[in-house]
Amino acid sequence: MSASVIKAIRIKAMDFLARREYSRHELHQKLTQRFPESTEINSVLDQLIIDGLQSDSRFADSFMRLRVNAGYGPQYIRAELRQRGVAENVVEDTFSNQDVDWVTVAQQLFEKKYAGQDMSDAKLRAKCQRYMQYKGFAFDHIRELF
Prior knowledge:
It is found in: Cytoplasm. InterPro entries: RecX_HTH_1st, RecX_HTH_2nd, RecX_HTH_3rd, Regulatory_RecX. This protein is mostly helical. It contains nine helices and no strands. The relative contact order is 0.11.
């Protein structure tokens, strides 16, 4: 591969990273779509990590903050991070470093979605519990709501 192709890959990767954080896995997929013939993508990504321009832990921190603010629970966020190729130890570090009160997040989502509704109705209560589970909250978090 020529130096110009490596430079083009690096510039495109930096262009992606200028817009938002990406996991290494996501960036690799995007670059592979743009440069399908290239065998230099991994070496370019390694250099970006060395240069401090790409970091899975920084991506995970940013992604987690976005998802918590959007009302998602820990199970959902963990699954999404794994799906984006973030290593399990990085996911665990992210969750241990972020001080999130999941019951409060669940409460805010519950109030936004079901404010003023009568939870004594068993059908509505079951629907609410399924919704909260879908959003990634553990049964303990949901039980706290009721």
